[in-house]
Amino acid sequence: MHKNWRDCQAWRDIGLPLSTTSNEAAKLYDAAVTQIVGYYDDSSVGGLEATLKRMLECDPDFVMGHVLKNKFQATPWTAKHDAHIKKDLDYLFSLTDKPNTTDRERGHIEAIKHAVVDHPYDAYASYDNILVDHPNDIFALHSSFMGYLHIGPSTQIKDTVGRVLGSWKKSDIHYGYVSSLYAFGLEECNMYDRAEKTVLQALEMNKNDTWGSHTLCHIYEMTGRHDEGAEFMLKTESDWWMGSNFRCHNTWHWALFYVEKGEYENALSLYDRTIGKSAIGPLSSPFPITDAVSLLHRLEILGVNVGDRWEELKRKCEDHIDDHMWPFADAHFMFAFIRDKASKSGQGLLESIKAYVRDSDLKDGHNAKVYRDIGLPIYEAINAYGDGLYGEAVDLIAPKRYEVAKFGGSHAQRDVFSLFLIDAALRSSETRHHKLARSLLRERKANKPCSPFSDKLVARLMDLHDD
After folding, report:
1. In 3D, which of 349, 431, 55, 61 has the Cα closest to residue 46?
2. Domains plus CATH for the chain?
3. Coiled-coil segments, which residues (predicted)?
């Protein structure tokens, strides 16, 4: 693990000069970026939050310090409605005109400017432009990569790394992380053999590469190697467990292997031990909530009784009913809300989203368009499913099944929508929907021949006697 934090001269030596003159701020910047790309909190520097705080205490005008701070707190919504964040952004944007601000740092500021007005493709293009001249800027690379993952285009996820990979040497400090990012892009483009070879090399360099372990999980999942996946996660738990910012999600992948294997109690045990606690804990965010909801919904499709686990999860979803930061997350909130027939939260979420996409300041942004054109029909489909209107749910979501990629996330994460559509079609009373389910299951088996989950859905189809 990288621990020898770089001072101002070391950053200049690799062609990434910083505008700060504080060696301590430069070292803490290195520590912060390393924790970000490694998905862990380094106790030697107090964790990521403490690192960011100390960095700006060392140099209150440090441009990249303010970039990091605003990158993780500013959204189109908070930029408009949170006075403290708006003040922070105004100060960050003023740093563009500082004489010692570098062009690379201005590029990072430009990316945030685009992001907070909800022009994500322009934001990620800014990062890609930085990488043309500075392919070793790991923070620009990570920001571009995660940005494309957030909005869904698989080719860009892969290519933003592929364009710079040849400029990195194995001796470079963050080479392993770059390699595991590229492996994930390969996996999302269905290039599984290359992806596996690449990520195994990355894990040889750093067994604690949390993203690398995560990528290998994806490969095992998409190729139907569930026994290998479960065994890998069990044997390497102490390696990736340090990735505190990704611990819940990796555990979710582990649970999916058990779901496929039919070992439902093992999946629920992982939920109770890690996933559920991350979702409903005091530091919860939408990301672990989506993991928790997705796992429980998949289990219920298979007829597994998940007990009262929905109750606390539904209440946590209600905390985010007006956020609308990520269409993928709102769909999962709706999945939770339909479990309580007496609750009005589902309708409240729909009304809140409709108000959001009408907002005069936000309606023309990328996020609002995705909510309006793709999100609303899918949320209404989930709501209809909750009311027992399965045929209506099918007719709402089926036309959007390929567009759901714009929700962002990975193929594995978005698979919950495919399973939802098949499940609703099987529950529908209409023969045409049963025929659709048959076609979708054939497609699913062609793409992933080894899937006991699919086999169980096929068995349900056979029980309908529609063949």
Report:
1. 55
2. 1-167 (1.25.40), 320-467 (1.25.40)
3. none
